[in-house]
Design brief:
Radius of gyration: 20 Å
Distance between the termini: 34 Å
CATH class of the largest domain: Mainly Beta
Number of strands: 12
Strand content: 15-25%
Order of helices and strands: EEEEEEEEEHHEEHHEHHHHHHHHH
Shape: globular
Length: 315
């Protein structure tokens, strides 16, 4: 797998380190398909890596899942699990692109102190791993309910408690099914470079980071850092950071119907200090301007773009 993106789900969390939502993908949605996308396929989520524990439950359609060392097809009723720091992506067939799935992500490092010496702590420390795909009605039912609970978080403490209970119920069921096992030595051997990079960028992506600065942060020679980064992430640090910021702009802000930020404000939020560079990179990667993308996901946002900003995007 190459050109792996780093996603920072923690920005979606409200009062608890859990997030859940239902996503729909179909013909009407224009996806970002970078070079190397399998022929006849479309990304429904691009290759990415993060520190969160993630589960995807297929409600309808079929999703082709790819990890660093495994490929599978997930059908309705299947729940696919991604352990922390596992690169993964999902495709749909261009001829049958309609799919609906529930997603749950959990920041295990924040959940572990709530119940020490348990399954959560072991998963957070990569001492144990979950099997890739399970098919269990009880887990599926919880996965379908969690997004509804997530919508109510912040309104009362009851929804948050219900989400936590649902998450622990899923882990207990996975354990009862024998789907959690001790990690092999190979599975424990996540390159420290990858983990350190993921953790650093998730905290500092809004800052003006250069390749020279991050190589010094790692105490590496500039050339050695560049070679090491490309080996693990499949591209240069600058390319990776740019694509990561663009994907955050889309996922955290532009696709959120409740977001009232303008395109230039979103650019600043994800670390771009030059709006023209943001629009240029956005069009190059996504195939449309930020204005067009925002109008497509929420037509009412057009009023947030001034003529000067629209002119910048047309240049």
């Amino acid at each position: 797998m190459t050109n792996i993106q780093l996603f920072c789900e923690r920005k979606n969390y409200t009062n608890i380190p859990l997030f859940a939502a239902v996503y729909q993908f179909g013909r009407q949605i224009k996806s970002y398909n970078p070079p190397g996308t399998p022929e006849g396929m479309r990304y429904c989520f691009v290759e990415h890596i993060h520190s969160a524990f993630e589960m995807i439950h297929i409600i309808s359609g079929a999703v082709f899942i790819e990890t660093d060392d495994e490929r599978l097809i997930a059908f309705p009723g299947d729940t696919v699990i991604f352990n922390p720091y596992e690169p993964h992506c999902g495709y749909v067939n261009e001829q049958h692109p309609d799919v609906e799935y529930a997603v749950m992500t959990a920041d295990l490092t924040q959940l572990a102190p709530m119940a020490r010496k348990n399954l959560v702590e072991a998963l957070a420390q990569s001492k144990t791993r979950c099997e890739r795909c399970v098919r269990d009605e009880a887990i599926g039912a919880q996965m379908r309910v969690l997004p509804e609970m997530n919508e109510r978080t912040g309104e009362s403490g009851g929804a948050e408690l219900a989400m936590l209970a649902g998450f622990y119920s899923i882990l207990a069921q996975l354990d009862a099914l024998g789907c959690i096992h001790h990690a092999s030595e190979r599975e424990k051997q996540l390159p420290p470079f990858v983990k350190k990079t993921v953790d650093f960028l998730s905290e500092h992506y809004t800052e003006n980071i250069t390749t020279d600065q991050i190589s010094k942060y790692f105490s590496y020679n500039y050339s050695y850092f560049c070679r090491l980064f490309k080996k693990h992430f499949g591209c240069s640090f600058y390319t990776y950071l740019t694509e990561y910021r663009i994907n955050l702009a889309r996922g955290l802000y532009m696709e959120d119907a409740a977001c009232t930020l303008s395109a230039s404000e979103i650019a600043s939020k994800v670390g771009f200090d030059d709006y023209c560079h943001f629009t240029h990179d956005f069009k190059r990667l996504i195939g449309m301007s930020p204005t067009e993308y925002m109008k497509k996901h929420s037509p009412s946002r057009e009023r947030l773009l001034t003529p000067d900003k629209k002119l910048a995007e047309s240049s």
